Automatic annotation (TrEMBL):
Major localization class: membrane
Leader sequence residues: 1-24
PANTHER family on file: LIPOPROTEIN YIAD-RELATED, STATOR ELEMENT OF FLAGELLAR MOTOR COMPLEX
A GO cellular component entry from the record: cell outer membrane
SUPFAM superfamilies: OmpA-like
Organism for this UniProt entry: Methylobacterium brachythecii
Keyword RNA-binding applies: no
Source domain of life: Bacteria
Protein name: Outer membrane protein OmpA-like peptidoglycan-associated protein
Protein keywords: Cell outer membrane, Membrane, Signal
Residue span, OmpA-like domain: 213-328
Localization terms from the record: Cell outer membrane
Length: 328
């Protein structure tokens, strides 16, 4: 006999109606996402919502041992991951006592299917992993990265990824559930895909770069964008790169150090390595695409070590993610 549905927030996608609920005991400012709902009686213990961000969603079994061999446990660039951008919501729930991981997952799966979602990937325990390391708790470390309780998914870890098309803009829901003795946890990530608002950054011209460098010896740039978790420069970065090349061409004695900076998402060592690769990519592109002499450029990554502002809000994190030009 099929279990009764116990997801407490109802969603009617076809009518456009959705409700979101906050309950006593939830962390401040938290609420359910209307596309995912809440298992009956659960409490929100962690919550994050961003109007635009990127996320990597697991869509196939992952080889965690291979990540460890590369000293890159936070890497999310392989084919097992689906990189998406849009409105991001992440919610962790404490599930009521005596409710199993299986019961919670079956309810989420039924709820999502009944609201038009297609299940793209689901798995349980070691089937979610491949290679030599297949302990269920690893799945939690890969997906629920802000969870300080490493044993939350120690037993009966289960995962699903579902998608629904909303007028040509897919929405994704990823759910992981697991048990630690008598405690059950669910972590829900929702990504409502959309394009970024591209009018938020003003192009810094070559003359403006030179003025800033004359005044302070450096300039902060936000117009160079990279693919998620990679050092690949996005096409929309071309105008800023062209202005950098111009300021170098217009000032024959100018030599620059290109410095990459990140926010505090992820571990420091990983961010440092990523910022190094990204700064090097900028140098490589200036050489290969714009003909800038290698002798006039150096690069390094600073990771999270030199924030302009505290990493305590989405707006501040955006200010800290940047490329900096320093006069040598």
């Amino acid at each position: 006999m099929a279990p009764s549905l116990r997801i407490g927030t109802l969603v009617a996608l076809l009518s456009g109606f959705a409700s979101a609920t906050a309950w006593a005991g939830d962390v401040a400012g938290a609420k359910d996402h209307p596309l995912a709902g809440r298992f009956e009686g659960s409490t929100i213990v962690d919550y994050k919502a961003r109007s635009f961000d990127e996320a990597a969603l697991l869509r196939a079994p992952i080889d965690y041992a291979a990540l460890l061999d590369r000293n890159a446990p936070e890497e999310r660039s392989g084919p097992e991951w689906l990189a998406v951008q849009g409105k991001l919501t992440e919610i962790r729930y404490d599930i009521p006592e005596h409710r199993s991981s299986l019961e919670v997952m079956v309810n989420y799966q039924s709820f999502l299917k009944s609201n038009g979602f297609e299940i793209q990937f689901n798995c349980a325990d070691s089937a979610c992993l491949k290679g030599n390391v297949r302990d269920p708790y690893v799945l939690g470390q890969l997906i629920d990265t802000r969870n300080g309780v490493s044993t939350s998914y120690f037993d009966h870890a289960r995962y699903l990824l579902a998608v629904v098309d909303r007028s040509g803009a897919p929405a994704y829901v990823a759910v992981i559930t697991g048990e630690d003795k008598e405690r059950t946890t669910a972590f829900v990530r929702v990504v409502e895909t959309k394009a970024a608002e591209l009018d938020k950054i003003k192009l810094v011209t070559a003359s403006e770069m030179k003025q800033a460098m004359d005044r302070a010896g450096r300039v902060q740039l936000y117009g160079i964008q990279f693919d998620f978790d990679k050092a690949t420069i996005k096409p929309e970065s071309r105008p800023t790169l062209a202005e950098i090349a111009k300021v170098i061409s217009d000032n024959p004695g100018l030599k620059l150090e290109i410095v990459g900076h990140t926010d505090d998402k992820g571990k420091d060592a990983y961010n440092l390595a990523l910022s190094n690769r990204r700064a090097a990519s900028v140098v490589s592109d200036l050489q290969g695409s714009f003909g800038v002499a290698r002798s006039r450029l150096t690069s390094r990554g600073a990771g999270v070590s030199q924030p302009l502002v505290p990493n305590d809000s989405d707006a501040n994190r955006a200010k800290n993610r940047r490329v900096e030009l320093i006069v040598k």
